[in-house]
Design brief:
Layout lengths: L15 H17 L3 H20 L11 H9 L5 H45 L4 H39 L2 H14 L6 H8 L3 H7 L6 H10 L9 H12 L5 H32 L21 H36 L1 E2 L2 E2 H15 L4 H9 L7 H13 L16 H10 L4 H12 L5 H11 L2 H31 L1
Helix pairs in contact: 4-5, 4-11, 5-12, 6-7, 7-8, 8-18, 9-11, 9-19, 10-11, 10-17, 12-15, 13-14, 14-15, 15-16, 17-19, 18-19
């Protein structure tokens, strides 16, 4: 047999490096053999036949089993799609509520029952002035500690579960189920995708509306994105549902009923998105709805540990850090409002007394309304603000501190404090509704302005949900009181 290198003698004028490459290529050509092209073509045809077998249906040939299509027949079914979606999210919320109680109490014991008294003792030892001690420890530290103890456990459970569903490929199926309803409401089908992003963060949902090409439909998606419960509002919903809704049934059913209540509020937000989109598309933003093609990705086994790491770092820690950044100054503001007096009453008392009549009309109270004003920078600090102001109104004190001091010991003590502040089941229900239907946070408002470049539409996006929230809570309060009199 001839040596293949003998068939390609060195050519003069070719650099040594290039000649080495030619020699190597020639040697490899002889090593792979003469049927390499036939093997490549055969592989291409084999792959094409496999794809055709999956996509084509032949007469008198039973279809092959396909796991993706079998699952899709259920989760995207007109009959089973929505019930399965509600059931799945109920399970996620139930796991979140049931699993967050113990670590939340553990963190509260460490940060509030142990560290706080130590800081108070250290402040007294070094001779901190009472106002500085109160501002730093009773205001800024306790507000931040409460945010961590209440928000971290449910977020550390909810976000990984939500990310696992996303990684598995289920969330695009949710968007597929909602596409036809968005089209009927006069909005773009891609609004379902931006709404899914809004369940994590409304600011991110507003930015995600860029995938919508039509300016009219993009504006509808931006205005209605606030009706998707963002991560900053989940802890409020979960806590209030656990304390008031779950307590209406036996303890073994409390977690399930609380989860159903939270799912009900989330579903109400979706319905409000449809209703407001329908209203906008037939009044201020008239036009024809455009269509789009939604490609469903294949199902894949979730990358468990990578998903856990990503959700904890990119979502849980990010959101928690944002809440801490806003909780620190908010705690200082709340403490100052509670401790700076004018004419024998604190600034907070003046605001609460001024807003109490309005709060009563909509089934809330002045404390809640002041809390939502203070919490415009971030929804995460609503509950800490409510607790601190309720302590002020009721005269309750903890840790030997004065007014405006944050505290938290357990669900029963928190419930007792709310009840001491005059809370009823109506207050809890309307707080859950108002938490869904109120103005966006400052970050989302700024994002809306940067995306639209319009002060007019930014004002509409901020005030329209607030107006709807006031009307809904007012209606619920009046009907509730009327029925209770019968």
């Amino acid at each position: 047999m001839l040596n293949q290198e003998a068939l390609t003698p060195p050519q003069s004028g070719i650099p040594a490096a290039a000649q080495d490459i030619l020699d190597t290529a020639n040697r490899l050509r002889w090593e792979v053999g003469g049927d390499v092209h036939e093997n490549i073509v055969e592989a291409i045809y084999t792959d094409a036949a496999r794809i055709a077998d999956r996509a084509a249906i032949y007469p008198d040939t039973p279809p092959r089993f396909n796991l993706d299509r079998t699952i899709d027949r259920l989760v995207t079914s007109r009959l089973w799609g929505f019930p399965l979606m509600i059931l799945l999210f109920t399970v996620v919320f139930w796991i979140t509520i049931a699993g967050a109680n113990v670590p939340s109490q553990w963190l509260a014991y460490i940060l509030l029952d142990t560290v706080h008294p130590m800081l108070k003792t250290a402040g007294a030892t070094i001779g901190l002035p009472w106002w500085l001690d109160g501002l730093l420890i009773d205001g800024m530290y306790l507000a931040t500690a409460w945010v961590v103890s209440v928000m971290l456990p449910p977020m550390a459970i909810f976000f990984p579960l939500f990310t696992l569903l996303e990684d598995f490929g289920y969330l695009p199926r949710v968007a597929f189920n909602l596409d036809n309803i968005f089209k009927k409401s006069g909005a773009h089908g891609k609004q379902s995708l931006s709404m899914m992003m809004g369940f994590g963060c409304n600011a991110a949902g507003v930015v995600a509306s860029r995938v919508i090409d039509s300016p009219r439909e993009r504006l509808i998606a931006i205005i209605t994105n606030n009706f998707a419960l963002c991560n900053g509002r989940w802890p409020t919903q979960i806590l209030i549902a656990s304390l008031f809704i779950g307590s209406l049934v036996p303890a073994y059913l409390g977690g399930l009923i609380s989860a159903l209540a939270v799912v009900g509020i989330a579903m109400l937000g979706v319905l409000m998105s449809f209703a407001v989109s329908w209203f906008l598309s037939r009044t201020w933003l008239k036009g024809e709805a455009s269509t789009f093609s939604l490609e469903l990705p294949p199902y894949r086994p979730p990358r468990f540990w990578q998903t856990i790491y990503t959700s904890l770092i990119d979502r849980t820690i990010f959101v928690l850090w944002r809440a801490i950044v806003f909780a620190l100054p908010a705690g200082a503001v709340i403490w100052l409002m509670a401790n700076v007096s004018i004419g024998g009453a604190s600034i907070a008392e003046y605001l609460i007394n001024f807003l109490n009549p309005i709060g009563w009309l909509i089934g809330l109270n002045g404390v809640i309304l002041v809390a939502y004003i203070v919490a415009i920078p971030a929804n995460e600090i609503v509950i800490p603000t409510i607790l601190m102001l309720t302590v002020l109104v009721t005269g309750t004190s903890q840790f030997g501190a004065g007014a405006g001091v944050m505290f938290e010991t357990g669900d029963s003590e928190t419930l007792a404090l709310f009840q001491a502040g005059g809370w009823t089941l109506l207050t809890a229900v309307n707080l859950m509704l108002f938490s869904l239907l109120h103005n966006p946070c400052s970050t989302t408002i700024y994002t809306i302005y940067t995306e639209t470049g319009s002060k007019k539409w930014t004002a509409v996006a901020a005030l329209l949900p607030l107006a709807i929230g006031v009307m809904v809570t007012f209606s619920v309060a009046q009907v509730w009181r009327l029925v209770s009199l019968l």
